[in-house]
Amino acid sequence: MNTPIPLPVDRALRRLGQGVSRARRRRHMSQESLAERIGASVNTVRRMEAGYPGTALQHLARALQVFGEIDKLDQLLDTAQDSVGLALMDEKLPQRVRTQRSTTKSGAF
User: What is the 3-state secondary structure (H, E, C) of 35-78?
Assistant: First the structure.
């Protein structure tokens, strides 16, 4: 299935790739060295840095680990800060909450 990548997604992937490239260069690391450390080919690193949408998420995660930034992956979608999701949950809250009737098991009518 070849569906076109939405422009905002394409831009985000390119920015992410630029960030990987910048982080690698700041650490004076070659593409070959990064590829070896994440268990990928140099071509995979090049595609990741170019923002190619088919790059496996595991390669990005491993690159973040090499850079000492793996905690950033946990922050991508912090559900406690998901304002849209929380608002949708709040819409489904009941208007009233009624207490449950207690039933006696004494056998009396």
Answer: HHHHCCCHHHHHHHHHCCCCCCHHHHHHHHHHCCCCHHHHCCCC
The answer to whether residues 40 and 47 touch, using CB atoms and an 8 Å cutoff, is no
pLDDT for 108 beyond 70: no
Structure tokens at 9: 């997604």
For residue 62, the domain's CATH number is: 1.10.260.40
Cβ-based neighbours of 2, under 8 Å, separated by 6 or more:
none
Residue 97 lies in a domain: no
**Residue 4, class by beta-carbon neighbours within 10 Å (0-12 exposed, 13-18 middle, 19+ buried)?**
exposed
pLDDT over 70 at 81, yes or no: yes
Q: How many residues does the chain have?
A: 109
At 105, the amino acid letter reads K
